[in-house]
Design brief:
The structure is a single chain. The relative contact order is 0.03. The protein has 111 residues and is mainly α. The chain has one helix and no strands.
Length: 111
């Protein structure tokens, strides 16, 4: 083999090695790109699931608090009515004594 032929083979070897290296780099880039795309899709899926869970929790709490609100209003109405009835009974019970005391103080004259 002469020097020119060896040089040509050397250049051909370098070109082949460069092409193989470029293929390896391209494959690595494609693989990285695919992994990033997959990671992004998984993250979006997780975010959507988290958002759905938070929304469901919010709606559940909203429903529970609304239900409690209605029950609380009814309970408070019942308690208020009971207190009003108690006050009416007590005022009727002592109204005669209060009237008697007021009449005594109004009709008595102090010198």
């Amino acid at each position: 083999m002469d020097a020119g032929s060896r040089g040509h083979n050397g250049i051909q070897l370098l070109l082949t090695a460069e092409q193989e290296a470029q293929q390896i780099v391209d494959a690595a880039r494609n693989s990285k790109s695919a992994r990033l795309k997959q990671a992004k899709e998984e993250a979006q899926k997780e975010v959507a699931e988290f958002r759905a869970q938070m929304e469901a929790d919010f709606q559940r709490k909203l429903t529970e608090s609304s239900g409690d609100s209605g029950a609380n209003v009814k309970r408070l109405d019942k308690e208020t009515e009971a207190k009003i009835q108690h006050l009416k009974i007590e005022s009727n019970r002592i109204s005669h004594d209060v009237n008697k005391m007021l009449l005594k103080h109004v009709t008595s004259v102090s010198y």
